[in-house]
Amino acid sequence: MFDLAGKRALVTGSTQGIGRAVAAALAEAGARVIVHGSTSLEKCKRAAEQIPGNAEIALEDLSQEGCAGRLYGQTGDVDILVLNASVQVRRAWDEITPEEFDRQIRTNLKASLFLIQRYVPYMRKKGWGRIVTVGSVQQYKPHKDMAVYAASKCAQMSLVNNLAAQLAPEGITVNNLSPGVIATPRNEDALGDAAYAGKVLAGIPMGFAGSAQDCAGAALLLCSEEGRYITGTDLVVDGGMHL
């Protein structure tokens, strides 16, 4: 099961955290993986060294105009596209600046659409493809200081629903993976505050923060042949937080 030998996969935002765990899981299943970062080539190289099987690297800021074409120019075609990269700004809704709004929407939503546009033609030609966007439990329970981030993830899920129905007849599945509170570098400071962490964990029925590996197994299912009959779904990995 979960044999991805002969497949090529791009995981955006895969230098650390959930993205790196997903990239490693796909590589362990036999896929040739491309590690992507936005600003640091050295971080890409270090992450690639931790991925089995001679991972490739690509560097592109997905908040910038034309990013999809430039990234595609570096990677070429892939069988599996995992859109994990995102920007998250913590700020009260009435203090968000236009620049902060635009950067989150460009990275979290606009880039998703235009990357899918670039990579789908090859999948369509092959009659096989896997697209997984990474959303958030905030689609269900938006954080009061992340209104735009949460909205961008809701919009991305709508995109998944729309495209899944259109691409299913061509052998391409499109799904969303929604992590809850995951112990990654992004959440390190917040979870390091004992008082705040206590409040957060109290809202999780399972009572603890997940690990990046918890998301990796779910992504592997959605990217594999075993997930061939799953499309247009939101696989929530949150310990029950959304309930």
Fold and architecture overview:
This protein has helices spanning 17-28, 41-49, 67-75, 98-126, 147-167, 188-192, 194-202, 212-223, and strands spanning 8-11, 32-37, 56-59, 80-83, 129-134, 172-179, 234-237. By secondary structure, the protein is of the alpha/beta class. It has eight helices and seven strands. α3 (67-75) packs across α4 and α4 (98-126) packs parallel to α5. The longest helix is centred in the middle third of the chain and has 29 residues, at 98-126. A seven-stranded parallel sheet has the order 3-2-1-4-5-6-7, with helices on both faces. Helix content is 44%, strand content 15%. The chain has one domain: Rossmann fold, CATH 3.40.50.
Rg over CA atoms, rounded to whole Å, is: 17 Å
Helices, by number, come to 8
Sheet with most strands: strand arrangement:
3-2-1-4-5-6-7
Note the overall shape: globular
Q: What is the name of the CATH superfamily?
A: NAD(P)-binding Rossmann-like Domain
Measured between the Cα atoms of the first and last residue, the distance is 31 Å
* Poorly predicted sequence stretches spanning 5 or more consecutive residues: none
The percent of residues in helical segments reads 40-55%
Count of distinct strands: 7
How many distinct folded domains?
A: 1
Mean pLDDT, to the nearest integer, reads: 96
Order of helices and strands: EHEHEHEHEHEHHHE
CATH architecture: 3-Layer(aba) Sandwich
Structural class: alpha/beta
Write the CATH fold name: Rossmann fold
